[in-house]
Every structure is written in structure tokens, then in C-alpha cells.
Amino acid sequence: MGAPRGNDPVLTGRLRLTPVVVEHVGELERLYADPLVARWTGPWTPDAVREWTQGMARRWAEDGVGKWMAHDRLRGTLVGRGGLSRTVLGGEAVLEVGWVVRDELTGRGYASEIGRAALGWAATFFPELPVVAYTEVHNRASVAVMRRLGLHSAGVIHREGLVEGRPGLHAEAPFALYRQVLTMISHLV
């Protein structure tokens, strides 16, 4: 068996993670129709889901990295999606880790499982790129996942998103930024 390739499925204790491809549109439409998922990521129209899916498939082809579909390893049922995206943040090339889990499956550790898989994948295939995560400051569940993954607070950034207590999207919403801190250990010889 050869070395793993970046687009090979990733297996965790409970999940099979496979790169998003255009054939996943139907599953993604179902995922983004969940009320809690839609609250943080939507609203999504069928055209928007199709466009996002096509874009993610292109990112895998062009960038060698992207989001995965997350399925239960035993039953094959949809759990969510997550993984990494290559982006530029404050002029620095980074990998952004993120996740979305079906409403009925939240609170069971799936987001952390997807995040841990993504951090391991990044260390294998893109060790030179820092990993960050961000979410609206009031998304306490995602902030808790970031902390469980060992990411450290790196301040607040502003981008389009939700503002607690105010309806709709806002151009300069505050997002909690977390970053992976890699400790370099040197040995004296």
C-alpha cells in the first residue's frame, strides 16, 4: 500500500470523510436545510448549494485541499461536512478548518472528530501552512470545539456574518479567531 494521497478518504473512529464532489449536492441541500445549520450558514437556495459544491470540487482540484463530506462509517448516513479551505487572512496564507453537523447529531463530538482529522491531514499534507478557525463571537458551540481542538484565541476579525441580537447579515460582524500554535522543541547535542 502506498503513501496516502490528499484526496483519499480519511477514516476516524466513527466517520468516513471524502472530498466534496458535485454528486454531493443533494446531501448538502439536506444538510443546509436543517434549521440550526441554516441559522449559522444560510440561508441556502438550491442554486447556492450547487454553486458552493461546484466551487469546493474545484478547490480540491486546484488547491489540493477542501471540505469533506462526513458519513457514519457503519451506516453510511450523512453526519455533516467539514475540513479545510485554503485562504488568505491578514495577508498570510492559511488553512481554515471548519465543520457543520446535522442538527440531530450535534453535541455528540462529531465536530471535534472532523476538526481533529483536519488538523492531522493539514500536518501531513500542508505542514508549512498555519491552521486557523473562526466563527461569530456568539457561536459558543463552535468556540468550544476550537478550544477542544487545542486552538488558541488570536483575537477578533470582522467579516460578513451574524451579530447577536440583530437580525440578518452584517458586513462587519465580529468573529472569534483561533489559531493552531505549534511548539518547536529543539534538542542540544
What does this entry look like structurally?
With 189 residues, the chain is α+β, with helices and mostly antiparallel strands. It has a single domain (10-179), classed as Aminopeptidase, CATH 3.40.630. Helices cover 31% and strands 35% of the residues. The chain has helices at residues 25-33, 35-41, 46-63, 110-125, 140-148, and strands spanning 10-11, 15-19, 67-72, 78-89, 92-101, 131-136, 152-163, 166-179. It has an eight-stranded mixed beta sheet with strand order 1-2-3-4-5-6-8-7, sandwiched between helices. Helix 1 (25-33) crosses helix 3.
Features:
Protein N-acetyltransferase, RimJ/RimL family; GNAT_dom; acyltransferase activity, transferring groups other than amino-acyl groups; alpha+beta; Aminopeptidase; globular; 189 residues; transferase; Acyl_CoA_acyltransferase; single chain; eight-stranded mixed sheet; disordered C terminus; 31% helix
- What would you call the structural class? alpha+beta
Radius of gyration: 17 Å
Q: Beta fraction of the residues?
A: 35-45%
* Spans of at least 5 consecutive residues with low confidence: 184-189
Placed side by side, the strands forming the largest sheet appear as 1-2-3-4-5-6-8-7
Oligomerization state: single chain
CATH class: Alpha Beta
Number of strands: 8
How many separate structural domains?
Answer: 1
CATH topology: the name is Aminopeptidase
CATH architecture title: 3-Layer(aba) Sandwich
Shape: globular
Question: What distance separates the N and C termini?
Answer: 36 Å
Helical run tally: 5
Main sheet specs: 8 strands, mixed
The SSE string, one letter per element, is: EEHHHEEEHEHEE
Integer average pLDDT? 89
